[in-house]
Specification:
Oligomer: heterodimer
Number of domains of chain B: 2
Radius of gyration of chain A: 24 Å
Distance between the termini of chain B: 55 Å
Helix content of chain A: 10-25%
Largest interface: A-B, 78 and 91 residues
Shape of chain A: globular
Shape of chain B: globular
Helix content of chain B: 10-25%
Number of helices of chain A: 9
Largest sheet of chain B: 7 strands, mixed
Distance between the termini of chain A: 60 Å
Structural class of chain A: alpha+beta
Structural class of chain B: alpha+beta
Strand content of chain B: 35-45%
Chain lengths: ~425, ~450
């Protein structure tokens, strides 16, 4: 394979030769080794190699970009010429720019190569454990991969970053079955730096597998009530998407973000502190360089309920007048609270333990509604039974303000670390 | 794209093998409130091989397309299959396969437009919206084009070449009402290159006007009254209903993992008014949004009749599931990228039209909802599905009332489909959706308006 840095530099030079005023090139070589399990048995061994060359040029305040997966000089020359043609077509905008010079750096995390034997034996062991502990469980799909990527980011302001990253990614999808009764499927995923621990001990896998077997027989809720939710870490992973999107370029540039005037203000309960830590040791699947070409830094997005930063790119920052974010979000780490999960459940008079939310995209104002999947009714401080055909409705912005407690316990997914969160004021409707 | 003839490499195959060259080409141009926030083209392609050995699969891919790379992926995929077979020793027999050849291209015959012309088209649309509707807080105009070009050869004698383009213009209009943002988005376009679908920005003005009027009504909208309601699902919703509610539960891999459709072939699972088919490529002599003549395992694609007059008739299959169920593969094995393996995926899933008129269906409801525009959806092994609603109206005493805010509807498909009492005579295909199941894949969804009982989220 060609030298990574030479490829990136060739792409940058090709853009400048083609007439770019400012240019950047990101060359990434990726190698993936993936083991697939279907219906509880190994089905596929997959090895893929890929190349991605991202080219961006600015000329006369017009910007264009392209991505190809060929790294030979002829392909890159052709792509560079195309980028300039694309840029010439764009509307001019003084806000287009590239990252300014920073000290060159090389970042590394994880292993250089997979331990394929350990991958195989780890999955095999998991299959045995699942069969023994949860005989009614159907492991519909498990995908365990080791992805090794090497990336070089160069631009015409002399930015020069190299990233080497190796990480194991694990995804599981499962249901449980007893004769003709079947539970709702559920899924979870996590990333690992190595395979030292049993897979069943990682992330929330064992908790969810156990719950799945309890959910073969469910009961629909009857009627409607306004009550509490205890949102599980898996569910919170999905729900944080609303917050990060709402403080990002699109809604902020368009002026439709409900948080557009809220920087430095209380947007959530003082109990909530949320970080984005892409370069933290506690996150094994983060990132080192932003898509703009800045060395990523950790940040606190919400501190004791106060919005501390938007997640704006360089362009978004120029368009809105707010500071550029020091990272691209994700890699969320939520500070734990001082309530145990047991005590949290005991404090709920009537509500739902929401383990999976299957709903429509929330509106720009934060209104949401959806089905409470793989979830339980809580009454009188006790988990009563798994439910089905029950919907929850509320507003994300209000929900963040109505946080009553955050659990001491957290789940480490490798790409995020999240607790259970107790909120109030949610409409729950059954049949 | 490349100069190799894949058929030259069949002699290197050892056992059942698929060899595929694929390139996906994407154009993306976005204007947000007049700002050109995206302006890009990309092309990702390469070669992949998948090899079957006694029930175990090996796969390998490489972005380079050269004689050496082709030999390399065949060798690596074969080695992967041998390795897994040596560990697993499943001892399963050969896959069913009937040789088939197909060459289909849906490329435009017109002169292709350059990026500048496409950007100008979008800018004109954006200018029109800004000029015509000054009370809007924002608007987003986005062009997304995807061309998928594939060549496939298999060890059992199939060969195919195909080019299937899709072009979507998405327009979202937003305003601020009482300090709260309210938005409404719609997609226009479908199968084909831009040049075959759009001639002038003005062609969309009438539909944007209609979209704007719905937004104004939605800005005065109310929360739906949560619970089980009688609703008319517009034709544009029937497709996502077909896809999410039934389609996923009848994919043979979902059936094998225990979906509720398992063991119900021949049983009444819906009202006799409901017939649901996953069309391969054509319906009523017209080409479907995502035409598949041959799938990525080299199987001739045929229509999969899932429900006929309310009775569950069959599942969607790849070669492996067809062998398990002792039936014929239906041609549903599809892969998204060159580096992806084929999975059982829907193609063009639709409920067939009935005989009722939409106006009569609305008039027949005393207290319910007319739901018009969907967003995302999700299925479940239990057949309890949901999908988001971004446009709908109350029905009071047979007449349309106030608009409702964004909501979600849900139901248990095999229960809900038994509540269907009216099906409209018109049939509408959506501009096209993307389905997620390990990989993304373009799918077609269509159907008529349906009157049924369904759970609606609200306050």
């Amino acid at each position: 394979m060609a030298n990574l840095r030479e490829v990136a530099q060739y792409g940058l030079d090709a853009l400048l030769r083609a007439g770019a005023d400012k240019a950047q090139c990101v060359a990434t070589f990726t190698e993936k080794h993936e083991m697939n399990v279907e219906l509880g048995e190994f089905s596929l061994l997959r090895t893929t190699f890929d190349t991605n060359i991202g080219l961006t040029a600015i000329k006369d305040s017009r910007r264009g970009s392209t991505a190809i997966n060929k790294s030979d000089n002829e392909s890159m020359d052709k792509a560079a010429a195309e980028v300039l043609a694309i840029a010439a077509a764009s509307a001019p905008d003084e806000a287009y720019d590239i990252a300014e010079a920073q000290p060159p750096a090389e970042f590394s995390s994880g292993s250089d190569a997979p331990d394929l034997d350990r991958m195989y034996s780890g999955v095999k062991e998991l299959l045995h454990q699942v069969k023994a502990r949860y005989p009614k469980l159907v492991l519909m799909q498990a995908i365990i991969d080791f992805t090794r990527s090497r990336s070089c980011f160069v631009n015409s302001n002399n930015v020069d970053f190299v990233t080497n990253k190796g990480v194991y990614n694990c995804m599981f999808m499962f249901t449980s079955k007893d004769q003709d009764k079947v539970s709702s499927f559920n899924y979870t995923s996590f990333s690992l730096r190595d395979l030292e621990r049993d897979l069943l001990e990682c992330g929330s896998l064992d908790i969810l597998l156990k719950q799945s077997t309890e959910q073969i027989i469910t009961r629909p809720l009857q009627g409607r009530f306004v009550g509490d939710l205890i949102i599980t870490p898996d569910c919170m992973n999905d729900m944080l998407w609303f917050v990060s999107r709402t403080i990002s370029d699109g809604p902020m540039i368009s002026g439709t973000s409900i948080y557009k005037d809220k920087l430095g203000q209380q947007i959530a309960s003082p109990l909530l502190t949320l970080h984005s830590r892409p370069v933290s040791d506690e996150i094994c699947n983060g990132y080192f360089v932003t898509s703009d070409g800045y060395a990523a830094q950790n940040s606190t997005i919400v501190e004791s309920g106060v919005l501390k930063t938007y997640l704006l790119s360089l362009y978004g920052s120029r368009k809105t007048g707010f500071d550029r974010a020091v990272n691209m979000g994700g890699a969320f780490v939520m500070e734990p609270g001082d309530t145990s999960l047991d005590d949290m459940i005991k404090s709920v008079e009537k509500g739902i333990l929401l383990a999976r939310f299957s709903g429509g995209y929330p509106s720009d104002s934060g209104d949401f509604s959806g089905v409470a999947k793989n979830s339980y009714l809580i009454e009188g401080g006790r988990i009563k039974y798994p439910i089905s055909e029950s919907m929850v409705s509320g507003n994300f912005a209000e929900m963040l303000k109505n946080i009553k407690a955050i659990s001491r316990e957290r789940i480490d997914y490798g790409f995020s670390i999240l607790p259970w969160v107790h909120v109030s004021g949610i409409t729950v409707s059954g049949k | 794209m490349y100069s190799l003839d894949l058929r030259d490499y069949v002699k290197l195959f050892s056992g059942y093998t698929e060899l595929r060259v694929q390139e996906n080409r994407v154009i993306r141009i976005v204007f947000v409130k007049g700002n050109n926030t995206a302006n890009s083209r990309s092309a990702t392609g390469g070669i992949s091989a998948r090899v079957y050995r006694n029930g175990s699969w090996g796969f390998a891919s490489n972005p380079e397309i050269s004689d050496q790379a082709v030999k390399g992926v065949i060798q690596a995929a074969t080695a992967n299959a041998i390795f897994l077979d040596s560990k697993e020793e499943k001892g399963r027999g050969p896959l069913p396969g009937v040789p088939f050849e197909s060459q289909k291209a849906f490329s435009t015959k017109k002169q292709r437009l350059g990026q500048k012309q496409l950007v100008e088209f979008l800018r004109e649309l954006d200018d029109h919206i800004a000029r015509t509707y000054p009370n809007l807080a924002s608007r987003t105009v986005a062009l997304n084009c995807l061309d998928m070009e594939k060549t496939l050869v298999t060890s059992d004698g199939s060969y195919s070449r195909s080019v299937v383009p899709r072009t979507i213009i998405g327009i979202t209009l937003s305003l601020i009402k009482d300090g709260e943002p309210v938005g409404f988005g719609k997609s226009y376009g479908g199968r084909g290159h831009f040049e075959d679908l759009f001639t002038s920005p003005a062609d969309l003005y009438e539909r944007i006007e209609e979209q704007y009027h719905h937004l104004m009504k939605k800005s005065e909208g109310v929360f739906a009254d949560a619970g089980l309601k009688t609703c008319v699902l517009d034709a544009s919703l029937a497709g996502i209903l077909a896809h999410e509610a039934i389609g996923h539960t009848t994919e043979a891999d979902m059936v094998l993992s225990g979906s509720v459709a398992a063991g119900k072939i021949g049983q009444q699972v819906a009202s006799p008014l409901v017939t649901l088919i996953d069309f391969a490529h054509s319906y009523n002599g017209q080409t479907c949004p995502v035409p598949v003549y041959i799938d990525d395992e080299g199987t001739m694609a045929r229509d999969a009749v899932l429900i006929e007059n309310g009775i569950l008739k069959g599942y969607m299959h790849n070669k492996e599931s067809a062998r398990y169920f002792n039936t014929e593969p239906t041609g549903n094995a599809r892969a998204y990228e060159f580096s992806d393996e084929p999975l059982i995926r829907m193609r063009n899933t639709a409920i067939l039209p009935g005989t009722d008129k939409l106006q009569d269906m609305i008039a027949s409801i005393d207290d319910g909802y007319y739901l018009i525009e969907p967003s995302n959806g999700q299925a479940d092994s239990t057949s309890e599905f949901m999908f988001g609603i971004t446009l709908g109206y109350e029905i009071k005493k047979g007449k349309l009332g106030r608009a409702i805010k964004d909501t979600t509807i849900s139901g248990v498909a095999f229960d809900m489909l038994k509540t269907v009492t009216m099906v409209s005579s018109d049939m509408k295909w959506g501009p096209g959706g993307m389905c997620g199941k390990k990989q993304a894949i373009p799918v077609g969804m269509g159907g008529p308006a349906i009157k049924c009982k369904i759970n609606i989220g609200g306050r």
